[in-house]
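Section 5.1 Outputs to date
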Amino acid sequence: MYGLPTDTIRREFRTRVVPNNGLNPVYNEEPFVFRKVVLPELAVLRIAVFEDTGKLIGQRILPLDGLQAGYRHISLRTEGNFPLSLPTVFCRIVLKTYVPVEFGDFVDALSAPIQAMSQAEKREKAMKDMGIDEKDISDVPVINKEQAKASKQPSNGQMSSSPNNTTAPQQVAAGGKKEERKEEMAFEGITREKLMSEKVYFKLLRKQPKDLEMLKRRHQKERSMMMRAHCTVVDKLVASHDKEKSATEKSMEKKLKKNKDSSTDLKSQSEGKVMNLVTEHKTKIKELVLVQTKEWSDMVQRQMTEEHELWREHTLQQNETLSRLLEDAQREQMTELSARQDRESRELRNNQAKHSMDSTKTVLNDKTIKNKQERDRRVRELNENNTKKFIEERKRFANKHSRQVENLKKVHSEQTEKMVAENQKALEMIEMAHEEAKMAARPETVV
């Protein structure tokens, strides 16, 4: 055969010499098989017949795209391509479409769809009877006996040629692969409750009540000091008023004793003066109480604000700790995902290398291949097919890994948004409690 470099095969297929039957020799040999022709439009087949001395009797050059299957008489020609009258070769030509071994079942299903559908329905029914869901079964490559036999013999899409059997191929590759079911990396969801059970968060919760207790003790101390100060001022003022009132009453009693004649008028004046003095004392007491009430209320308001600020600071610390823990957990998941993907990639490369070595070894040990040229072509073809298949597998793995990373990033983004919303809600609850406390607060004092 002549054509493209990969299709050119010279001096490979020969028959044995048939002695004592020069008029009608029968070459009962194995078929001449041309497994695969890359470009049959440019390929030609040369059939030549020689004498036992090596002299050429006749030859014929046939284009492959013009061959027809069946039993054919092929008249031979001279070296100058002039027709000969008698020399003729009777042979059988078989044409088949080249189909790779891995697509054999698919092509069989296309050629007999009714039979394939009935087999699929029977299989599905049998699986349902056994309680097995087809989705739970992963696609595993299985080499059956026919495929194993086909790997040792010329494949389905081959071209055979001999004095009794000549085959011309038409390279049409039909294929379809079942898409592998997507395997997602499952990670446990990161929730606020889970993060709150971390040791770092517990340590923060143990520390914060101590700060709050110290602030409350300081506030209580301030209240006690202000209460004592207010009571002291009020006591002094009341004592001063009582002293002034007693002095006024004693002075009026002395005047009444001296002026007994006008005792009624003096008594009225004395009572009026005492009443004015008591009224003045009450006014001073009220003013003092108002001042102390304002001081006390301002102190209570200030303490309430300080306590609110501490609560808010504690909430911010908790939110910051939870956000940091969330980032750490997400980073760990990304690292674990990357490690899993690297491990899968290494396993894929190792499996591909092992598969390539095993398939090459199978071809090299195939005893049906008779010469080195055919063996080299098989190995070269096998390497090309493996390279294409391996590249596609790696692309699928890369796409799957990209989808896994994108899905995990999307989940992490949703978790971050949820964490931000929950943190904001916690701050809003603190602010709401503070506003309610401010609205419920009333002016007060302790006397």
